[in-house]
Q: What sequence folds into this?
């Protein structure tokens, strides 16, 4: 049995997983037949797992997802516009290594945001940083940072995210000022970082929602040219999705 001073020293070193496993070993016993090296390996493994879980939780919290869901719970259906091949592409995260974008379109309630957040959760598990935004909130933040002279700092901050998820993209017309700063963001990430664009508006309508045609051409080229496209179909899944989320919350209590 270790004395309190030893536990205090381990605590100061923030070896909380190590402490938890050590206490478990002392409580249960039965480890006397194990070598010191084997017991130490267990302690290190628990510490490593504890740190991984904490890092994952931190990435998920920082992402600010609209939904908490995993890709494994996404229903694959060719009739709804998502087949096994597309899902496997999303799960692999190879598209991030290739600096590709993802465009998810479909009618309201078709599960676009649900799918995008599931992709985001998978990205977090791949130890990458991701951030979810609603497009209007993102535009407001861009304009505010430009107004107070911190746009470059803001863009630098967003460039720390391997992936941005922009939900409700092209939901309505935007101003020329919003368009100008949106271009700055898109240009900053083009061919360097990936972005997921989620929209209920068909891609061929996006250009018409931007007032400056030349800047619209530039944005569309950077967004669409390097994008994998998923078009969800069918009737609203909102009730089914809400039921899944309620079930997940119940399991977590």
A:
């Amino acid at each position: 049995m270790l004395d309190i001073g030893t536990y205090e020293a381990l605590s100061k070193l923030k070896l909380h997983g190590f402490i938890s496993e050590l206490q478990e070993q002392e409580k249960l016993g039965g480890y006397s037949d194990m070598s010191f090296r084997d017991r130490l390996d267990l302690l290190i493994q628990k510490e490593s797992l504890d740190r991984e879980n904490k890092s994952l939780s931190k990435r998920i919290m920082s992402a600010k997802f609209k939904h908490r869901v995993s890709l494994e719970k996404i229903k694959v259906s060719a009739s709804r516009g998502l087949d096994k091949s597309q899902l496997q592409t999303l799960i692999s995260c190879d598209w991030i290594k290739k600096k590709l974008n993802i465009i998810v379109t479909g009618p309201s309630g078709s599960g676009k945001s649900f799918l995008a957040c599931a992709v985001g959760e998978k990205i977090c598990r791949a130890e990458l940083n991701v951030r979810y935004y609603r497009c209007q909130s993102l535009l407001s933040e861009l304009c505010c940072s430009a107004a107070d002279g911190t746009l470059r700092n803001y863009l630098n901050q967003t460039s720390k995210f391997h992936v941005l998820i922009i939900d409700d993209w092209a939901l309505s017309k935007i101003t020329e000022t919003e368009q100008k700063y949106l271009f700055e963001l898109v240009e900053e990430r083009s061919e360097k970082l990936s972005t997921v664009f989620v929209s209920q508006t068909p891609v061929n309508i996006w250009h018409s929602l931007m007032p400056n045609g030349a800047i619209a051409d530039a944005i569309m080229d950077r967004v669409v040219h390097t994008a994998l496209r998923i078009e969800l179909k069918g009737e609203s899944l909102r009730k089914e999705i809400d039921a899944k989320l309620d079930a997940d919350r119940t399991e977590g209590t």
